[in-house]
Specification:
Blueprint: E1 24-28, E2 32-38, E3 52-53, H1 57-76, E4 83-93, E5 97-98, E6 103-112, E7 117-126, E8 132-142
Antiparallel strand pairs: 1-2, 2-6, 3-5, 4-8, 6-7, 7-8
Length: 158
């Protein structure tokens, strides 16, 4: 069995610095991408005790979708473009928060859409127990040409 080697997450996301919340890419196909998150007490969304509220999973899922798009763009030789979260549907939080040091698996599976508008079924699981912690559907738009807003071809969110 061959293990795929994926680029660093920050190489396929428009986010940078502390706003890159994903730890690594672990799987990718034409229709699905899986990433991991190591919940850090020093993370940008960490509360005083180091835990992270479960609603932050929406950003984890959005970044997993962005990683999916970034990997596809990179494979096609296209630039990585920024995107926008348009909405969410049927988000279910099965936990109120993530614990410091907890390892999460984030999966985004393409449901519909081409070119500029897409929908992804997403799930966040505990990587150790495989329990589903958050699930839902996100709708996103790719913002072709919107990188001109930043003046540098990407988004700086340090």
């Amino acid at each position: 069995m061959t293990t795929a080697i994926f680029p660093r997450v920050d190489e396929v996301l428009p986010q940078s610095g502390r706003m890159v919340l994903l730890t690594r890419i672990t799987d990718h196909t034409e229709r699905r991408t899986t990433c991991t998150v190591e919940v850090s007490p020093a993370g940008v969304f960490a509360e005083a005790d180091g835990g992270v509220p479960a609603w932050v999973a929406i950003e984890y899922m959005a970044q997993c979708i962005a990683a999916h798009g970034g990997l596809r763009a990179r494979a096609a030789g296209d630039p990585i473009t920024i995107g926008f979260l348009l909405g969410s549907r049927s988000i279910t939080l099965h936990t109120p928060r993530f614990q410091p040091g907890q390892h999460l698996e984030v999966e985004a599976a393409h449901v519909w859409g081409e070119h500029d508008f897409f929908s992804f079924a997403c799930v966040v699981r505990d990587a150790r127990t495989r329990a589903t912690l958050v699930e839902g559907t996100l709708t996103v738009a790719r913002a072709e040409g919107a990188d001109a807003l930043s003046g540098r071809g990407g988004v700086e969110t340090r």
